[in-house]
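Record type: monomer structure entry
Structure origin: computed from sequence
Chain ID: A
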Amino acid sequence: MSMLRDNTNSLKYIGSAIMLVALHAYAADSTGFIRFEECSVMASNHLHLETFRNRTMERPIVLRLPGALETLPDGWHDVPGMDCPAPNQCEPATSAKVQVTRVSYASWFGSRKRITEVEGNFAVVLHDGMKLEGSFKAKTRKPSDKLICE
């Protein structure tokens, strides 16, 4: 009987751990993707927020993340933000800031590690005065066009 009770308690702990992991995965207010989009000395990843509080946004918000994420100091960073009602038709946001709280990596057989996911917080005031703020979780996507940076 004692063995059965121990197994039942173990299953409860495992179930609780699984639920906490699932909660963490879906706790972000906004989801989207990040990708490298330009060739310049100051090039960086762009964060595309596509959902907000479980609803798909009609107009995605794009934030230009500052510099190399792996060396980014803690805290909030003012960033350029855009409201994009259609592809290539973006309007600058009045203000935007981002705080990166977690960067996940993957590496394959000794190759250099690459970013797979970024989490953090954001606050944006759009040109029409609308304010959006909350947490985000974004996975990495490859660039939409082949970039050849010289």
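Annotation 1: Residues 29-140 form one domain.
Annotation 2: The radius of gyration is 19 Å.
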